Amino acid sequence: MKPAPFEYLAVNSVSEAVTALQRYGPNSRIIAGGQSLMQEMNLRQTRPAFLVDINGIKELDYIRETANGLAIGALTRHRTVERSELVQKICPLLQEAVKHIAHFQIRNRGTIGGSLSHNAPGAEYGVVTRLLDAEIVAVGPDGERIIPAEKFFIGHFKTDLKPAEMVTEVRFPALSKETGYAFLEVTRRHGHIPIVSTAATLRLNPDDTVKEAHIALGNVSSKGVPYKVKAVSRLYGQKLTQDVLADLAKAIEAEVDPDPHADSEAVFVKQFSGITSRRVSELSSATYRKQVS
Ligand code: FAD
After folding, report:
1. Could you report the predicted ipTM of this complex, rounded to two decimals?
2. Rounded distance from Cα 10 to ligand 1 centre (Å)
3. pLDDT, mean of residues 112-126
4. Which domains does the chain carry?
5. How far is ligand 1, taken at its centre, from the CA of residue 36, in Å?
6. What is the mean pLDDT of the chain?
7. For residue 214, pLDDT beyond 90
8. What's the rounded Cα separation, in Å, for the pair 262 and 123?
9. Among 80, 152, 224, 278, which residue's Cβ finds the most Cβ atoms within 10 Å?
10. Is any atom of ligand 1 closer than 6 Å to the C-beta of 48?
């Protein structure tokens, strides 16, 4: 398939991109890695009349340490995150997640800004961004604004980005040395968009009771947004016994509102509850020990 005809403009700065998006209006689209947009255009699911190519904005391709964690430029490729020593040191959970994105050819081109702006249900970056309450920096005609992950994702393939606004940076908090972490997903084949994805962090007290735990899930919310589990608070102060984990799995099952487009809600909810509790229990031993050693 071929895309419908479109005009194309390559820009070299954020202000040029915003000006072009403003000038060409709602029928214009940014193209970054093109790994989602070109598919949609080739299938004619999307027919933008005007493409603004941001690949020339070299200053959006970076990973930097900040006072609280990491700042990643919107044009940073998945592969760069996957291989970054800084990411490994400061927020290794991101690398656990990014390994699951598609195949290396796609990771060589796809960008973090593109993935978050696209907001495909279950997408790995979205789940980690929501889990860690990361912040998304957007620039538009009215200047810069910082959007918390909780507010950024608003529906299936929809975000809080306003017309002519673009993502320029994503800010992740550092994971402390005492924090265990994991990312797991259910897919039909490695590299496919996940049916269900899950990310977790865990801190234990010296007596092995839970000090802090968070779990986020992708593709279990009928709203089409990454979901942060509330029931996890019941773990606080408890030891992670099989009974406690089984209880948590049941509570999560009751709490989530699976995507009605998933093939079989029951099967997938069971699968994700299984992987969540299994992984949390692994976290209490292997991963946690690795982190604190
Ligand atoms: P593009 O395709 O260029 O753009 C996607 C959308 O985001 C467009 O609407 C575009 O206008 C907008 N956009 C891009 N950059 C910005 C910006 N800075 N500001 C505002 N809007 C912007 N993804 C996963 O997460 N998990 C997977 O398992 C997975 N599997 C895949 C398998 C295949 C076979 C393919 C082809 C893709 C897969 N993807 C997967 C998608 C891939 O991760 C994409 O790279 C990503 O979703 C989009 O990033 P991109 O840079 O390619 O964006």
Report:
1. 0.99
2. 18
3. 95
4. 7-53 (3.30.43.10), 58-173 (3.30.465.10), 180-292 (3.30.390.50)
5. 4
6. 89
7. yes
8. 14
9. 152
10. no
